[in-house]
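Long-time lurker. I teach an intro course on protein structure, and each term I like to show students one example going from raw sequence to a predicted 3D structure in token notation. This year I'd like something fresh instead of my usual example. Would anyone be willing to generate the tokens for the chain below so I can use it in lecture? Attribution to the forum is fine with me.
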Amino acid sequence: MDYSRIITIEPGKRGGKPCVRGLRITVYDVLDYLASGMTVEEILRDFPDLTEQDVRACLAFAADRSQQA
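-- Reply from a regular --
Happy to contribute to a lecture. Here you go:
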């Protein structure tokens, strides 16, 4: 998945952490919600600005970063 249009990094926003579509929701927030046991449906319900594609982009971003390490 090409997440480059979904995951953005802006130095002045959330300390330069990767965010979803310029929102103040970070990739790490989404991953933390998933790791804590929330389902994608629960995340989307709690954060209506997010889409299922956004969640997938967060996972793709994390997978890509882990391969670079």
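Some talking points for your students: The chain has a mean pLDDT of 95. The chain has one domain: 7-68.
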